[in-house]
User: Fold Imidazolonepropionase from Blautia hansenii DSM 20583.
Amino acid sequence: MKKRYIRHASELVTCRGNAPKHGKEMSDVGIIKDGAVLIHDDKIVAVGTTEELDQQINKEEYEVIDASGKVVMPGFVDSHTHFIFGGYRADEFSWRLKGDSYMSIMERGGGINATVIPTREATEEELVEAGRERLNRMLEFGVTTVEGKSGYGMDCETELKQLRAMKKLDETHAVDIVRTFLGPHSVLPEWKGKEREFLEEQLQVVMPKVKEENLAEFADIFTEKNVFNIEDSEYYLTKAKEMGFKLKIHADEIYQLGGAELASRVGAVSADHLLKASDEGIHQMRDAGVISTLLPATAFCLKEEYAPGRKMIDEGCAVAIASDLNPGSCFTNSIPLLVALGCIYMNMSIEEVITALTINGAAAVDRADIVGSLEAGKQADIIFLKFPSIHFMPYHTGINLVETVIKKGETVYH
Ligand code: NIG
Ligand code: FE
Assistant:
């Protein structure tokens, strides 16, 4: 058995709990000063002060790791990304800088549909190799679990290819990958006006194959004006749930359509974006236990107003923050950027942002019982920061503070 003992962490941030934290609970990240963690193989077996754990064990049996002067905390869970895709859309970014909008580019045939052809043309191997590079970059930022979506094929073959690429990466890369089927990501010109038929095809042809090969745990849809309306989205999500998929939804991003309310009605695990969520929708998500996943780097890149994170927390919601890494609206997986935007523009405290990136992110991918906190029984997914306090995270603005990443008990980045 491999035994490791981390001791003398200036701040051991436990984020303890097996469930999402709501409202005020988000401010408590369970800091232990001069903290210590015991690891046996891939699991945490104890946390406490260095003094407490020193008394419990024979240090000779352990590889001892000194964490003095450092924060030790759970690996980040990036619970919303589209990291498997072909091609890039740098041209769209420069058009937007000149005043074009995301929706007008989409209406001209750009946007998500512009990523479809290069993704269809890429081989599975090419998607795996590009994905591996992106996962390496995530690991450097301390991300140890990531959610990834299909949605750039919009035909059966390519959707399955994207999901298979992620499955292969999950088996061969240190970062754990939670896979989501997002066939209804956009409406290709040939399906305009026939959205319901497109959804039927997803439900009857594509999704049974996804199930058969166990390629995705979640089903997701882009519910938006000029994409999928509430009625069609409700139909799709309800059927997907009957097939055994857990649910996510891209909701109320550009227009207020009632996506937050829909997520609550169908019992989605998370509703994501939510820039325009209504007050009623916020209350319903809280009452239905839907995680509100906020993607502030997308709002930043699109120059949109930020989601009302402060209000959601004050109203008692469980808020997660994720990157939304994708080739169009948000080509970044920078955790320091998310920290800065959460603290500076969404008026969240650093404790709330940490909760949103750890235990609540884990809950958004239904893994809160396995990752997202440091406590006995959890997977040993642990990161070290170069500074002694969590307050350096927003203060040393935009800088990656991650020094070491331990995944399932092994050091995978240093
Ligand atoms: O979450 N909003 C829809 N989907 C993505 C954008 C994907 C793209 O532009 O390629 C999002 O922002
Ligand atoms: Fe997205």
Summary: The first helix runs from residue 50 to 56. DSSP finds 16 helices and 16 strands in the chain. Residues 80, 82, 250, 324, 326 surround fe (iii) ion (ligand 2) (CB under 6 Å).
